[in-house]
UniProtKB/TrEMBL annotation:
SMART domains assigned to the protein according to its UniProt record, in alphabetical order: MR_MLE
EC top class named in words: isomerase
Protein name, per record: Dipeptide epimerase
Family note: Belongs to the mandelate racemase/muconate lactonizing enzyme family.
Length: 326
């Protein structure tokens, strides 16, 4: 029986609001690609991201357009050649990995030579006033690693407030391109004072030449500036680490190549996520087994998760069961 590709749109409520420098959301909209072959089913979840010119409708259309090719037996390598990197390709690529595991009876982890273990994941604090963020940090103070969303003006006060709220937690910050040349030094000094270990994408992608001339006492991580392995060459001299996300890379297949290339280039690796369910996180947990930083807390930001969800004991995220993915 030929494989059949279908696509669905799902909306999952966020617990409270999720706020970054580009705006706030109260629900996560995800797109799920499902490939069925007889009684077998492979699934992949993606999150269309407007920052990269993606819409839900556009991603759905791009997935549906691959239906005939999937029915004809397209594999992951051909998929990567046929589609650009992005959310749509990620959903299909991960669905193919899942289906291959179901066909063969061999898990994705085993195919990758992994004996996956639970990982310490960051827990994200949304952007807010210093008082709001201090209160949020105090509630999360027992978590081992906090990821702090910053927004530009007032960031020095925000990061100091978070450190007061969670005096023992390890900290990484994510400015989502909100810093400027004028604010950079003050924000960097505040991060140093707070003991921050990593700063994600402080300056806008394509407007980050300042990073070649300033001291970087804290490692700078490329997020919006990096999507696929061929982007790495453009980051030399500006970034010390990369944030690898399946939705940016266009699937686990490309993300594995990207992580390998980044490590060969001597760069640190964070494996991150958009706000989605455990189905989106499952392949990323395998990708992150050798990462320096793990940021796969998407389901923790939701009011509810799907069946067979990942386990999040304490500050850890556990590998997926076969009932969920892979």
């Amino acid at each position: 029986m030929a494989p059949a590709l279908t696509v669905t749109v799902e909306r999952w409520p966020i617990a409270g609001r999720f706020v970054i420098s580009r705006g706030a959301r109260t629900e996560a909209t995800v797109v799920v690609a499902t490939i069925t072959e007889g009684v077998l089913r492979g699934r992949g979840e993606c999150v269309p991201y407007p920052r990269y010119g993606e819409t839900v409708e556009g991603v759905v259309a791009a997935i549906e357009a691959m239906g005939a090719a999937i029915a004809a037996g397209m594999d992951r390598e051909a998929l990567c050649a046929a589609m650009p990197a992005g959310a749509a390709r990620n959903a299909i690529d991960c669905a193919l990995w899942d289906l291959e595991a179901k066909r063969s009876g061999i898990s994705v982890a085993a195919r990758l030579g992994l004996d996956p273990k639970p990982l310490v994941t960051a827990y994200t604090l949304s952007l807010g006033t210093p008082a709001e963020m201090e209160a949020a940090a105090a509630k999360a103070r027992d978590r081992l690693l906090l990821k702090v969303k910053l927004g530009g003006e007032g960031d020095a006060e925000r990061i100091a407030a978070v450190r007061r709220g969670a005096p023992q937690a390890r900290l990484v910050v994510d400015a989502n391109e909100a810093w400027t040349e004028a604010s950079f030094d003050n924000a960097m000094r505040a991060c140093v004072a707070a003991g921050v270990e990593l700063i994600e994408q402080p300056l806008p992608a394509g407007h980050d030449q300042l990073l070649t001339t300033v001291d970087r006492p804290i490692a700078i991580c490329a997020d919006e500036s990096l999507h696929v392995a061929t982007d790495l060459a453009d980051l030399a001299g500006r970034y010390d680490a990369v944030n690898v996300k399946l939705d940016k890379a266009g699937g686990l297949t490309e993300a594995l190549l990207l992580v390998k290339a980044a490590k060969q280039a001597g760069m640190g690796v964070m494996v991150g996520c958009m706000v989605g369910t455990s189905l989106a996180m499952a392949p990323a947990v395998l990708l992150a087994q050798d990462a320096d930083f793990v940021d796969l807390d998407g389901p923790l930001l939701l009011a509810r998760d799907r069946d067979d969800a990942l386990a999040y004991p304490g500050s850890l995220v556990s590998p997926p069961t076969s009932a969920l993915w892979g």
